[in-house]
Structures are given as structure tokens and as C-alpha cells.
Task: inverse folding
């Protein structure tokens, strides 16, 4: 049985700020706001907090700092993000993005099944943001501490 050894998400939070900067570079823009509190259209008093947003550029999105295939709980997190993005923009007036930093996760989210189907139906873009080797190593170590990264044969958890 697996147990969460260390739930500290500092590495992922730091990674999110770097990913926002790289997203701006890839999209050729600046001014993405990090973690804004936004009112949900048509629902007074209900607010959402996406990972990044720009009213000027009509962009809203979530970042998923993860390596490898998604576990069921992580798939539920992505599903909640999909719902949040769609509820904010059901008319598809914004570019809705889920930024990932691993090719395996991108393939999983663009493949077959209900989760990729929802992503396509709600017109959400999956964008791959490359990490440096050091960032990948830091993220891998954090995920092991949090029991979110599958151990490879012959490898032991830290």
C-alpha cells in the first residue's frame, strides 16, 4: 500500500511560474495573470481560480506539473480543471489551455477515452511546455516524495 510521504507542492508551484513564462514565450504575448480569482459568469458569488488568465488576450488555463502517465486521482483533477474552464467560457470565446510538461501525459490527454473526448468537446488546447533536465529531476524527486511518480524497476523511493 502506498502512503503520501511528503505532500509539499513547493516544487510544482515554482514550476508553474516558470511554465507561465514559457507559455507567454510560446504564445508571443505577455501579461498572463497567475492564480486570479474570477467570478463565474451567470453565478453571482461563485468564483474560480485558474492557474493563469488574461482578459486582454482572452486566455484562461490550468497547469499540470506532472511526469508520466496520470493516475486515477490525477485524471479527476484534470476533469475538474476541464469543468472549471468550460463553466467560465461555455461559448468558447477564450483560448482554453491545459499546459503539461510531459509528452506521455500529452499523448494520454489527446488519446482515446472520456477525458480526451471532454477536452476535445470543450475545445481545450493541450500545450506541451518543455522543462530543463534539472527541472525534470526536481519534479521527479518531488513526485516520488508525494508518491505520484511510478518507481522504475530497481529504483527505490527516496
Result:
Amino acid at each position: 500500500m502506498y502512503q503520501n510521504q511528503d505532500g509539499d507542492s513547493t516544487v510544482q508551484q515554482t514550476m508553474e511560474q516558470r511554465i507561465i513564462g514559457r507559455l507567454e514565450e510560446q504564445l508571443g504575448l505577455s501579461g498572463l495573470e497567475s492564480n486570479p480569482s474570477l467570478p463565474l459568469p451567470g453565478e453571482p458569488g461563485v468564483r474560480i481560480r485558474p492557474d493563469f488568465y488574461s482578459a486582454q488576450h482572452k486566455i484562461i488555463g490550468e497547469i499540470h506539473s506532472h511526469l508520466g502517465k496520470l493516475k486515477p486521482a490525477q485524471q479527476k483533477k484534470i476533469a475538474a480543471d476541464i469543468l472549471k474552464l468550460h463553466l467560465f467560457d461555455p461559448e468558447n470565446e477564450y483560448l482554453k489551455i491545459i499546459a503539461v510538461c510531459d509528452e506521455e501525459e500529452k499523448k494520454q490527454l489527446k488519446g482515446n477515452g472520456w477525458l480526451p473526448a471532454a477536452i476535445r468537446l470543450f475545445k481545450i488546447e493541450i500545450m506541451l511546455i518543455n522543462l530543463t533536465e534539472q527541472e525534470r529531476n526536481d519534479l521527479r524527486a518531488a513526485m516520488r516524495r508525494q508518491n505520484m511518480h511510478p518507481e522504475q524497476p530497481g529504483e527505490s523511493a527516496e
User: Anything to note?
Assistant: The first strand starts at residue 33 and ends at 34. Residues 1-6, 151-158 have pLDDT under 50 and may be disordered. The radius of gyration is 16 Å. DSSP finds five helices and seven strands in the chain.
